[in-house]
Amino acid sequence: MTMIGDRSRDGGRTEDRLVAAIEPLRHLALAHAVYALLDTGLADTLADAPGLSLDDLAARHSFAPDRLLGYLHYLRNEGYVVEQDGGWSLGAPGAEAAVFRPWYQLLVGGYAQTFAALGPTLAADAGWAGRNGGEVGAGACGMSMFDAVPLADRILETVTGPARDTPVTVIDCGCGDGRFLAELARRRPGLRGVGLEPDPAGVALARATAAQPDVRDRMRIQQGGALDAPSVEPPPEGPVVYLAAFVLQEVLEQDGEDAVVELLATVTADRDDVWWLVLEVDHQPDDPRLREGLGRAFYNPYYLIHAITEQRLMDVAAWSALFDRAGLECVVDADPDPDIDSTGLLPGMLLRRARSAASTQSPTADGSRQA
């Protein structure tokens, strides 16, 4: 009998090469599938009511059973759901993805269209790639619960001292869905906050957050961008902190360095108790940290996004030069808890109007650098 081709299931060298070459396609499909698992609420249903049948799941979510079955089969083969005796449950990888869902919300929900536009956007005459601003803001705020919020809370102690009921006003110059500001308010009973957000979808989400009973008397949201911050009238007494969490990068690209300098200088010009708390990603694309761990898993694609969208990353030295131009000095420079991010690529900086031509900094007990 003549055999056409080798149908052995053991594979061969060419098949191994093919599998390796198309592995990114698997990750493309998987990232979208996991995002849908989280975004549709299906992951929550499978976690809360394990063992539901296909028909029950379809009915709860108004899904087409035949399409849902194909989707569940895919997720089962990737390990994200488990099928047993006709019932479906969330697998261990699915449960872990649910813990870290904001990263999927940012990179898939917010930036999938950005990645899809990568090729055309490289053209010399092309505009910037688009993004889903609402999902970007919501994802960024969710991620911040793990790293940036605890970091900002720790830095605020320099302003308020250890007492958490010390009055302080925080003006969030790009509040997204408001969770960042709300979480700071929950951690600090003396904090009152104003959130600025330019994206209409983000404003709606932020106002819903600000309406929650435990913060509704201490938060208000208004539509506007970071450059509108000087129009927000702070209380005449007590410390005021302008929070710029991953916002100045947008002002930098869209309005230029002079606009950043003017913004920073304007709000600190007349009072010594006004501060800037700036969080920005340190742009280090040539650093070996980008080839392993969290550097490779998150910061490498994050850097790519910012090369083709209307945002501009800079390294810490360049940011420091802008702060100097604005007449500011850095009082605290600190990193997130290394348990969640050990890269050192997410500095948090507390700035005030310079009180001397130069300031010296020395390490503090928590690893930050304080004047």
Description:
InterPro entries: Methyltransf_25 (IPR041698), SAM-dependent_MTases_sf (IPR029063), WH-like_DNA-bd_sf (IPR036388), WH_DNA-bd_sf (IPR036390). The chain is of the alpha/beta class and 371 residues long. It has 2 domains: 13-99, Orthogonal Bundle (Arc Repressor Mutant, subunit A), CATH 1.10.10.10; 133-370, Vaccinia Virus protein VP39 (Rossmann fold, 3-Layer(aba) Sandwich), CATH 3.40.50. Helix content is 47%, strand content 15%. The chain is built from 17 helices and 12 strands. It has helices at residues 13-21, 23-39, 42-48, 54-61, 65-78, 92-99, 101-110, 112-116, 118-121, 133-144, 148-160, 179-187, 200-210, 248-255, 257-268, 293-308, 316-325; strands at residues 52-53, 81-84, 87-90, 168-172, 191-197, 219-223, 240-245, 274-279, 328-334, 348-353, 362-363, 369-370. Strands 6-5-4-7-8-10-9-12-11 form a 9-stranded mixed β-sheet, with helices on both faces. Strands 1-3-2 form a 3-stranded antiparallel β-sheet. A hairpin with a 5-residue loop joins strand 11 (362-363) and strand 12 (369-370). Helix 10 crosses helix 13 and helix 14 packs across helix 15 (257-268). The termini are far apart. Residues 357-371 have low confidence and may be disordered.
